[in-house]
């Protein structure tokens, strides 16, 4: 076997009809529709419908009443464990034993409930009781309801920030967490198992955890007023500048463009320092890696937009998970339809045959 590709870069593992980043054109389309057309036109829950059902209607349902077992206030660990627990509480059946319609219903219930769990975990984190269902029911959109459940109020600016962020990050082809969801689904496991596995994969800083590390960078640059020096020191220590680089895009990440515009529209006080850091980072990365295009990725301005909504940095991976329930659900259904177990090969490069005494 001589075609090993570290990180599976460029390896085509699936065919998908859901979405795929347009690598060179810097666009992202969900079922063919550009995200630029969706943001501000339809709310997130309708985008869920577009991705999962190729139809805006009925979209993602409201969550049903449910009491999480014991929330620690640390999302996404709460989200991962509660999602796995729902498999047992709702007695979800294995994907191999149910039809597509049942799998769809399980995924719709789970998606809505996962958002609710994150809102409740965030309330626990803040030391308050999540708002009761009658308060939440006053919200018109999923973003409004999420904020009402978390804080008991939904500032329109915060709603716009979260809705835009969720739409921009709802789906992105075969990223690590979606791959994980598909692998789990391909074994015929239930939908709760596939969704909770995806949450675990998303929690790492190289995938969904980067925004949590962007705000501290912005704070440091704001305090020194020296973005070039900050970037130089970080790169000299072989550190990674969070919010830059992408395995797929070799052009501007279209999501970054939408989120930057939104941050400006919402009057974020951090835009100025973010633009200064972005300029310094891109210049330094161009100089050090002239043959490798490293551009601003979705996480950089996500951090700024989520900051407008007063989302604390340690909650950002769970906010990403809320958005990605749409992409995961769509891919789990697509995977179920292929019905083929995912089982790649590894090239063995360890010691040749030897006796135990040689170890
Ligand atoms: N800061 C500094 N250097 C970076 C970098 C960054 N943000 N992104 C890539 N590089 C460098 C790597 O250090 C590596 O250099 P080397 O060859 O001297 O070791 C080279 O560019 C290639 O990196 P690699 O990790 O192989 O590229 P990739 O395209 O697979 O990486 C990411 C994609 C996202 C993992 C990577 O760009 C990264 O770690 N970014 C920061 C984390 C982040 O923003 N994650 C959110 C992604 S949406």
Number of helices: 15
Molecules bound to protein: coenzyme A
User: What is the CA-based Rg, rounded?
Assistant: 21 Å
Mean pLDDT: 94
Task: Measure the end-to-end span.
Answer: 27 Å
Q: What order do the SSEs take from the amino end to the carboxyl end, as H and E? A: EEEHHHHHHHHHHHHHHH
Biggest sheet strand line-up = 1-2-3
Q: What's the total count of β strands?
A: 3
- Main sheet overview: 3 strands, antiparallel
- Could you estimate the helical fraction of the residues in percent? 40-55%
Question: Structural class, judged by helices and strands?
Answer: mainly alpha
Quaternary structure state of the chains depicted: single chain
Stretches where pLDDT is under 50 for at least 5 consecutive residues are none
The proportion of strand residues reads under 5%
Shape: globular
Write the layout of secondary structure elements.
Blueprint: E1 19-22, E2 27-30, E3 33-34, H1 35-38, H2 44-53, H3 77-89, H4 100-125, H5 133-136, H6 142-151, H7 156-168, H8 176-186, H9 191-202, H10 210-224, H11 227-236, H12 254-265, H13 271-288, H14 298-308, H15 316-338
Antiparallel strand pairs: 1-2, 2-3
Helix pairs in contact: 2-15, 3-4, 3-9, 4-6, 4-15, 6-7, 7-12, 7-14, 7-15, 8-9, 8-15, 9-15, 10-14, 11-13, 12-14
Coenzyme A is lined by residues 7, 206, 210, 240-247, 289, 292, 294, 297-299.
